[in-house]
Design brief:
6 helices
């Protein structure tokens, strides 16, 4: 009786839970939608990161951009880009060297 109950529960678990999950995860349409969603998210994050210093053609504009932003994550990403982007360092060398003092 115990073995019969275990077999019945295993079968029900497989049919009710495991099989639908495996079918969903192996569905090509679901996989494509998830990949597309992830790619769109990454593209949005890249645009948001690049937006920071590409809109600041001068030192003064860059300072205004920093002062006007209230998004802490954006400012952290901007700071990361400042220290790891060679194009930023050449474009805003004075600001980069000034920020190195405060790090």
């Amino acid at each position: 009786m115990y073995i019969n109950l275990c077999n019945r529960l295993n079968k029900q678990f497989y049919q009710e839970v495991l099989k639908p999950v495996v079918e969903l995860l192996s569905d090509p349409d679901y996989i494509n939608r998830m990949l597309l969603s992830q790619l769109e998210y990454r593209e949005q994050m890249n645009e948001h990161q690049k937006k920071g210093y590409t809109y600041a053609p001068s030192y003064e504009e860059f300072i205004k951009l920093i002062n006007s932003s209230s998004d802490v994550e954006f400012l952290k990403q901007l700071r990361y880009l400042m220290f790891h982007s060679s194009s930023f360092k050449t474009k805003h060398a004075a600001l980069a060297s000034l920020l190195l003092i405060f790090e």
